[in-house]
Amino acid sequence: MRPYQRFLKKWITTNLHVVNKENFANIAELELHAHQQDHAANTLYAIAQASFHPNYHCRAIADKDGVVGFLMYAAPGAEDEAGDYTIYHLMVDRRHQGRGHGRRAVELALAEIGKHGDVQRIWTSYQPDNAVARELYAACGFTEAGTEEDGELYAVWTPDPY
């Protein structure tokens, strides 16, 4: 098998699964590289936060070998504009980075969010020095739209009108 075929096979098997008691322990064991610690919020905190917000959706990123990452998105809440969704959290375990899992997870999240039917925009944010996140979201069709009060950059994705 050629190297690119191995990559595509690995990439294509990436899926999102609802966080549950069967995959929670695997999610709890996910790690980032030391230099990435400031780029992502604590995953367990995000899961706890979602338990208080019914519009937050936590997903395990998995491939044929098991859980490789975590993603959380939010549907619009009562105080949000209708049709505005947000990807709040995305991380891929340090041992599984560079294999396309992050990009595939974002693409799957966009598709899942799209099933809600009312999507006008999907927002995300990242640290200005996080070149990997910037490139990943740009590759998935996000456009940088400004800087938040805390200094993070925010980007927006809008569905194709056709």
Report on this model:
This is GNAT family N-acetyltransferase. The protein is an alpha+beta fold and 162 residues long. It contains five helices and seven strands. The protein has helices spanning 3-12, 24-28, 43-50, 101-114, 131-139; strands at 15-18, 56-63, 66-74, 84-92, 121-126, 143-147, 153-157. A seven-stranded mixed β-sheet has the order 1-2-3-4-5-7-6. The longest helix has 14 residues, at 101-114. It starts with a helix and ends in a 5-residue tail after the last strand.
Lay out the secondary structure:
Blueprint: H1 3-12, E1 15-18, H2 24-28, H3 43-50, E2 56-63, E3 66-74, E4 84-92, H4 101-114, E5 121-126, H5 131-139, E6 143-147, E7 153-157
Parallel strand pairs: 4-5
Antiparallel strand pairs: 1-2, 2-3, 3-4, 5-7, 6-7
Nutshell version of this structure?
The protein has 162 residues and is α+β, with helices and mostly antiparallel strands. It has helices spanning 3-12, 24-28, 43-50, 101-114, 131-139; strands at residues 15-18, 56-63, 66-74, 84-92, 121-126, 143-147, 153-157. It is globular and about 35 Å long.
